[in-house]
């Protein structure tokens, strides 16, 4: 039976660290502040916003909301972003995506200052991830995966790691972050030949395929640590991951549950980025 890598334990440790950083910044006259730009009322955006603001309140981080109607013009949205970019009291900016189809999302992302890109969506942040520099911030989800590995003492050095998925949101940055931890990394995708045998050779597996239950028992073996990034709704209306948990859990050494795994860590990572962005203004 696998050890469950619970997100709540990782979050608790991160939160204590963040609280201490906030106290230090406040003693130096800086109040870490997140700017939230939301267009329209998409239920998933509103839900994530609620979780983010609640976490901010818990950790002593301020926030300012810029709520725009779904039919907002490109000019109005860009003006709002420009205002947040130029406000020295706002240290990080979260822009909810996807934006309505009439808006040029690429132009919005390009206009966001990398030093305020706490969600890791700009080219500048990607450069930071791939070059290993302090430019921008990594996307929150792959960093949450790394936080879980660190918290549970899973050393990546010299280990074979496989990432299932090659998106810029999770797969590619996760691969780069594993390389930074001295793992030997393989990235699998829809064109990978005999994916089960490739995944089976890994000691650490991060699954971000975006499809419920795509990794089943045939992909897995004893001794593996599995980080399941997927959040899907199954036929019964229940949340499930990209890994078939009931087939994986009896076989592997450790696995993140869904829900209760990676997703629960990402909000603390986001708030941590805001605090780090505030700290960088003092350097």
UniProtKB/TrEMBL annotation:
Keyword Methyltransferase set for record: no
Function as written in the Swiss-Prot or TrEMBL entry: Catalyzes the oxidation of 5,10-methylenetetrahydrofolate to 5,10-methenyltetrahydrofolate and then the hydrolysis of 5,10-methenyltetrahydrofolate to 10-formyltetrahydrofolate.
Similarity field: Belongs to the tetrahydrofolate dehydrogenase/cyclohydrolase family.
Domain called Tetrahydrofolate dehydrogenase/cyclohydrolase catalytic: residue spans: 6-119
Metabolic or biological pathway, per its Swiss-Prot or TrEMBL entry: One-carbon metabolism; tetrahydrofolate interconversion
InterPro entries: Aminoacid_DH-like_N_sf, NAD(P)-bd_dom_sf, THF_DH/CycHdrlase, THF_DH/CycHdrlase_cat_dom, THF_DH/CycHdrlase_NAD-bd_dom
Protein name, per record: Bifunctional protein FolD
Catalytic activity as recorded in UniProt: (6R)-5,10-methenyltetrahydrofolate + H2O = (6R)-10-formyltetrahydrofolate + H(+); (6R)-5,10-methylene-5,6,7,8-tetrahydrofolate + NADP(+) = (6R)-5,10-methenyltetrahydrofolate + NADPH
One example GO MF annotation: methenyltetrahydrofolate cyclohydrolase activity
The keyword Hydrolase appears for this protein: yes
SUPFAM superfamilies hit by this protein: Aminoacid dehydrogenase-like, N-terminal domain (SSF53223), NAD(P)-binding Rossmann-fold domains (SSF51735)
GO biological process: L-histidine biosynthetic process; methionine biosynthetic process; purine nucleotide biosynthetic process; tetrahydrofolate interconversion
Subunit architecture: Homodimer.
Amino-acid positions noted as binding NADP(+) in the UniProt annotation, renumbered to this chain: 165-167, 231
All residue ranges annotated as the Tetrahydrofolate dehydrogenase/cyclohydrolase NAD(P)-binding domain in the record: 139-280
EC number: 1.5.1.5, 3.5.4.9
Top-level taxon: Bacteria
This protein's UniProt keywords: Amino-acid biosynthesis, Histidine biosynthesis, Hydrolase, Methionine biosynthesis, Multifunctional enzyme, NADP, One-carbon metabolism, Oxidoreductase, Purine biosynthesis
GO cellular component: cytosol
